[in-house]
Amino acid sequence: MLNGFRLQDLKNAPFPPPGPFPLDMPLPDNRKTLQISMFTAKNGRGLGQMLFELSALFGISKQLGRVPTINRGGGVWNTVTNAVTQHFPVFGLMFEMTDIEDSAAINVNLNIRFCCKFEDPRNLKSIEQQHLLLNGVYFQSFKYFHDFQSEIRMALTPPPDSALRAELMLPADFRDDFIICVHTKRPMIQDSGLSKPSDPIFTRRATDFLVSKYKTPSKRVTVVIFGNDPIWSQNLFHGEAKLYNTYFDSALLTLGLSAIDDVAFSRNFCDSILLTAPTSSFGWWLGYLAKDTAEIYFRDPKEAPDQLYAEMRQIDYYPNSWNKLRSSRFDKKMKESYNFE
Fold first, then answer.
1. Which of 41, 162, 135, 27 is nearest to 95 (CA)?
2. H helix count then E strand count, the chain
3. Which domain of life is it from (predicted)?
4. CATH classification of 160-340, choosing from 3.40.50.300, 3.40.50.11350, 3.60.20.10, 3.30.930.10?
5. Strand 221-226 vs strand 250-253: parallel, antiparallel, or unpaired?
6. Which uninterrupted H or E stretch holds 224?
7. Phi (first) and psi of residue 89, to 5 degrees
8. Which residue has the higher pLDDT, 312 or 234?
9. Model pTM?
């Protein structure tokens, strides 16, 4: 007997054979990771600003050979899910959720002083520590991720239900028209105040200019207005039409569409896009995610200076293929002049 057991019973017991026992434990994860501070998610900023930070996280990670991660703590992962990745699930798959403590990562400053000036992340390639955390804000430069534009555009393809709502918004009779999409922005209570709103005179005069540029005897032009204030847009393009030369054949408002639906409309229908609030981050993404053949115009931000303009290097913020639209200062009776840079 051995501690109450017979030796024969022990010999016949179904024990595993001698040798190393298999352990159901994950292997150590030695991959190098990258996080950013996710300022926009922590501070309740809008979709456009969050897309900039997330796309920069992806692009910088690819350049440094690291895994892009988002910390679960502090509600950041949930915020990103609710605001972004539930609408763009493929985009969400580009990131891994982690529980890495900030103290376990080496902290490095990048893009910490200015919203919209590019700082080359390749200077961080020599860092050997496993976990890297970038202390920075906004990351509003396409140069952080433009090398991976095709991947990002694919991952940010709007969901089918948004594409359907966008299609229903445009009647079949207008599908063959040249579609000019005008993004407008009006002040809202929850705005950060960093970006100036659209100016009504510039918005209408610039729209009329683009319509006259693209309209031909055989080509109808329809204007579609995106914006957060449909009453303002309605008054500007219909109620005050007598104050302006009206060149377009039809003007439609995207009433009832969400921001994601606006992206879907831009991706599928906009032949040209006019950004009348030039530092609006959401307007920027409407242009960046538009269909490949779309021509993008933006107001010269020097004409509408704001805090973002003060922190901006324009060659880092606007892609070279976009068109800067300038206007001379004018009153309602003065003819406007336009030129491109």
1. 41
2. 13, 12
3. Eukaryota
4. 3.40.50.11350
5. parallel
6. strand 221-226
7. -60, -35
8. 312
9. 0.86
Positions of E strands within the chain: 33-36, 67-71, 96-98, 106-109, 131-135, 178-183, 221-226, 250-253, 272-275, 295-299, 323-327, 338-340
Instruction: Write the CA distances from 150 to 30, 155, 280, 289, 291, integer angstroms.
Output: 29, 9, 22, 10, 12
Tokens (6 digits) for 99: 């529980």
CB 179 within 8 A of CB 290: no
User: Does residue 339 register a pLDDT over 50?
Assistant: no
Rounded Cα distance between 119 and 242, Å, is 48
- What are 20's two structure tokens? 């190393």
- What single-letter DSSP state applies at residue 175? T
> Would you give the distance in Å from CA 124 to the centre of its chain?
24
Q: Are 221 and 214 in contact, with CB atoms under 8 Å apart?
A: yes
C-alpha distances in angstroms, 30 versus 23, 37, 62, 66, 207? Answer: 19, 22, 17, 11, 54
Instruction: Give ranges for CATH 3.40.50.11350 in the chain.
Output: 160-340
Maximal C-alpha separation, the chain: 111
**pLDDT, tens digit, 9 for 90 and up, residues 78-129:** 999 999 999 999 999 999 999 987 788 999 999 999 999 999 999 999 999 9
**One-letter amino acid for residue 76 of the chain:** V
DSSP state of 39: H
Q: Which of 38, 319, 275 is nearest to 153 (CA)?
A: 319
3-class DSSP state of 45: coil
CA 140/CA 278 separation, integer angstroms: 13
Task: Give one word for 111, left, alpha or beta, with left for phi > 0 and alpha for psi -120 to 50.
Answer: left
d(CA 58, CA 35): 10
Contact 76, 100 (CB under 8 A): no
Residue identified by tokens 């890495």 is 100
